[in-house]
Amino acid sequence: xxxxxxxxxxTVNQCLLHNGVPVALPPKPFAVLRYLVENxxxxxxxxxxxxxxxxxTYVQPQVLRTYMLELRKLLGDDASHPSFIQTLPKRGYxxxxxxxxxxxxxxxxxxxxxxxxxxxxSRAASTFGAPSIIGREDELALLTAQLQALTRGExxxxxxxxxxxxxxxxxxxxxxxxxxxxxxxIIARGQCIQGIGGKEEYYPVMEALSRLCASPFGExxxxxxxxIAPAWLASGHEPENALASNSQPARERGLGDLCAALEELSAxxxxxxxxxxxxxxxxxxxxxISALARRRAPASLMVLATYxxxxxxxxxxxxxxxQDLLMRRLCIEIQLAPLARKSVxxxxxxxxxxxxxxxxxxxxxxxxxxxNPLFVIATxxxxxxxxFLVRQGADTAVRWERRAPLHEVEAGVPDALAQMIELExxxxxxxxxxxxxxxxxxxxxxxxxxxAAALEKDSTEIEEALDDLARRLYFVERAGxxxxxDGTRSAFxxxxxxxxxxVLVQRQPEARRARRHIRMADCLGRLFAGxxxxxxxxxxxxxxAAGDWSRxxxxxxxxxxxxxxxxxxxDAAELLEHALYLLENLNPVNHPPIARDLCSDLAVVRRLLAxxxxxxxSLSGKA
Length: 623
Prior knowledge:
By secondary structure, the chain is an alpha+beta fold. The chain has 24 helices and 18 strands.
């Protein structure tokens, strides 16, 4: 474990700690930080970082700038007066903080933990008989601590937040299992449904009350509701039989009456109201949560609500409510971060029912899933469906083994995930879908000017539209600005997950992708007119993706000569060899005149490399 300032980098579990508290950091930014920390006090060039972290893959240099912005924000670093990461313009980066080796504190809990959290997660699980939940032991302990507060008559409001598939429901299920096993509290659970929240007020509340009245506590609940809040019960029915349909006018239901009834119900046994997917909730449900949080009378009552990071209009009412309650210390928020590498390994062991995993499986799945539990499981099933993982042996000796190297897995998104992502994309307008599709053709990071070029639109209008998307979508973020050769500035954006980008790429017809790639390459040529060689490699990538082999080879030739001018002969040789490889797609009769020049330049570069090799051997012999 390496320490710098108040931070510790745990390279075994692949996580970052700030004063002992885990900090959410996706795999790629973690890899960038790790490389910097493991090479402190020296210049690390852009090319060195790209080669180390993305071997055999072309990645736009601006991706590094995106990750550096993210790391500086997380570390609280100032680019003008850096304490950790110094930028050396046009050269690279240097990690300037002092790095020391230290030992991990295996049982250390976050400093903000309550005394109840000091018990080991495994012990808490066994005490209540709860099913194991991987990578969320601290969060489960925090919920357990909130439950203890209810026994002192302290009401609690807890928000559990995270992206789709991060494990919000799994955490709540584990917590409910603990409670059900111990009989410590009454649970009433309701779920907000997309498309219903705006039409039916109190939908999740009515579902929770219905389940409550159908539970073993139903008779007591019905009796209290009948006496204090009769408008929340069905007219003409016995209390234990049914609740009112949600068509009963909301004006007949007083929030104060329901709050008083719930508080009285919690007098004998703590009451936990669970509302899932609160980002789809109606304003009336949010008003109830606000009222329950603000009432001053003691009550053994907890509201536990989950919501997805979403920037859509349905979150606008939730966001100010949550921020106000946080400011007044009337609630807490648990944000679920991606799973660390070790937790992904444990999850795979559990799913495959074996301790020793096939070689490289956990690293591959962690990289592809970026620590999202839903993506971990989907990726695993995808590998099994493709028969990269197969069952071998018989009876008790059956185990999963790798049938082929994982690097041979074809790029693709598991069907279930692809369908989920497609549904989110289909909610956007056609123009918005086209913008994201165009952006996906570059990389995880993409600039507004390139999207504008691909769609033949005005760059300013595209940037404004992408800013609007970034405010509304959780899987797209604005990451900074680039200065173009003419002095103008253009914003660039990033996809939160590479899988979203892959879906957006694959949903485009091949001919459309080709046209967009060529437009972006041509735009690069115009932007860098007079010094096209500096972006020739990127132009070649676009022409190659479009199947324009001749123009791709010409661009690679320019990139190779640019490399030769920098005395990067090995890079030049690789570029020339790749250019000749691309020309093999053409009929030899149709080879452009550049083919002869490529062969000539490659022969020169190879002679230079051979001379360098002989020189190094002679130096080695003298030594």
